[in-house]
Design a protein that fits this description.
Length: 498
């Protein structure tokens, strides 16, 4: 370019324009600059929307993306320090007590750490809204060899995208949804909450403990789902509510639970528990036996559910934990005080459950007069005062005969013996519940012994112990309990289930 044309260009570019009198080169500069900024903005918009679409496609539910949570990788298992399973030394800790009174029953968690026993819908939403950076959606744990691994999509389809209308109930560790699988199987899907690692911990315990369990009085775990932050358990659906609802719900003046039905529920629950304690190797302690964990089918058969708190125990060993969990009113005293966990803790809770079933009262009821708040204390006092007939649920359609009432009360009182060693094993409980003939023969003796019960603490009556030992001796109970609970030899059973 010649010096003349450069001077010409320069003079042309320096001419003022009609846009605020700005020189031409300034206008051109502004135009080029804004175009670049606009271009960059459009480019970033395009990239963001492409990324959103990509995530949406990967996780979208059956009814579009609205219900679809964004998966997070944030959940990490928190290893809670606890006593060695194989170490029977007592570990002394100063437990922190948390009482969640947001639920109908009071969940008590004695913990050496802030724990995560609470549940709320907001937690659920929190889990859903956690930002995602998950790139892989494949299973994080391998298939265990039993049941099925379900994909998140399968379970979303089954539960209408985890719809609110499908919610059956909400426990301490997650929300339970009703669902129908592609093969028309009705299921209950428990979506474990992302509560600081506890959900994952419970998931692993539960999967290992329940996956191999098969018993008509235990809710069957059909499979599980592990995708991103999701931990879901898929159970058989039990179609007639839970015992808590039938005992304490609004059922009118007359309960549909007749005496025989109640006895059947007690016996079935005992069989389910006996299987956990004595039919599995290693044995399983449920740790949260209570009426809301006893599901009922349409034939009024009980099925023990919610093994979330179960801990696998090595045979013949006790387990000392720094983290005591259970539900207020049902927890055995030695477990609450020292963390010492054996299957006898379940036996205690089972004794409370029997009392609840017979009386229709909750284990702790602050709306009652002072002497009646605690179910065990009240019931012991009533039995000690020779007024056992007065403890039965007033909603029962027909009062039970005196003999079976006393029999079941005796079993309940034995189960809640403050001394865990004196509590019967669940197999023995079954034996006692079924030993009608033996009891008939000794009925007169039972009556006599009952009348001798110490009013303060009828359990500490040596005569009653002697009498029961004689009637309900444990020597041949192993054979009977196996027959009664449908338990097959331990190893063989576990292998068969896998
Ligand atoms: N397999 C199932 N079939 C039908 N309903 C179920 C099933 N499992 C659970 N439910 C229902 O969902 C509710 C919540 O169950 P979940 O076991 O999570 O909590 P919970 O027993 O009420 O409380 P917690 O967690 O404190 O033990 C139960 O009360 C029960 O009615």
């Amino acid at each position: 370019m010649s010096i003349y044309s450069a001077a010409f260009l320069n003079s042309e570019l320096s001419k003022p324009t009609s846009i605020f009198g700005l020189r031409l080169w300034v206008v051109i500069g502004i135009f080029v600059g804004s175009s670049i900024v606009l271009l960059l903005f459009l480019l970033s918009l395009c990239l963001t929307s492409r990324r959103r679409n990509h995530n949406h496609q990967k996780l979208s539910g059956p009814h579009g993306g609205e219900l679809t949570p964004v998966v997070s990788k944030d959940i990490k298992e928190i290893v809670i320090p606890h006593a060695n399973y194989h170490d029977q030394r007592l570990i002394h800790t100063v437990p922190e007590i948390q009482i969640d009174i947001g639920k109908v029953e009071h969940r008590v968690v004695f913990s050496d750490k802030a724990s995560s026993g609470e549940s709320s819908r907001s937690n659920r939403n929190e889990a859903y809204n956690t930002n995602s950076s998950t790139s892989s959606y494949g299973p994080e744990v391998s298939h265990l060899g039993w049941g099925r691994w379900y994909t998140l999509r399968e379970l979303e389809v089954a539960t209408n995208g985890l719809a609110d209308e499908n919610v059956i109930g909400e426990g301490g560790y997650g929300i339970v949804y009703y669902g129908v699988l592609a093969d028309n199987t009705k299921v209950a899907v428990k979506n474990l909450l992302n509560n600081k690692g506890q959900a994952e911990k419970e998931f692993k315990v539960e999967v290992e403990a329940i996956g191999r369990v098969r018993h008509k009085n235990l809710v069957r775990l059909l499979g599980y789902c592990v995708e991103g932050a999701y931990r879901m358990l898929v159970y058989e659906y039990v179609d007639n509510g839970n015992l808590d609802q039938w005992l304490h719900g609004d059922v009118g003046d007359v309960s549909p639970l007749a005496w025989d039905t109640r006895m059947n529920i007690i016996l079935g629950t005992a069989k389910g528990l006996a299987y956990l304690h004595e039919g599995l190797e290693p044995k399983v302690v449920h740790r949260d036996i209570k009426s809301s964990n006893i599901l009922i089918d349409h034939q009024w058969n009980p099925k023990v559910s919610d093994f979330g708190l179960a801990k696998l125990l090595c045979s013949e060993r006790s387990y000392v934990t720094t983290r005591v969990m259970g539900t207020f009113g049902y927890v055995a005293p030695e477990y609450a005080c020292t963390g010492m966990l054996t299957e006898k803790s379940d036996v205690f809770s089972f004794g409370i459950l029997i009392m609840e079933i017979i009386s229709g009262r909750t284990p702790v009821d602050y709306s009652r007069p002072p002497g009646e708040v605690n179910l065990v204390d009240w019931l012991k006092a009533m039995v000690g005062n020779r007024r056992p007939e007065e403890v039965v649920d007033p909603k029962l359609p027909e009062k039970p005969a005196s003999k079976p009432l006393k029999r079941i009360l005796l079993v309940a009182l034995r189960c809640v013996d403050p001394d865990s060693q004196k509590r019967p094993k669940m197999g023995h409980v079954i034996h006692m519940l079924e030993a009608d003939d033996l009891l008939s023969r000794d009925e007169r003796r039972i009556r006599r012994e009952f009348s001798n019960l110490n009013q303060e603490n009828p359990l500490e009556n040596p005569a009653a112990d002697k009498m029961e030992d004689k009637i309900f001796h444990e020597d041949n109970s192993d054979r009977l309990k196996v027959k009664a609970a449908g338990i097959v030899p331990r190893r063989q059973d576990a292998d068969k289930d896998i």
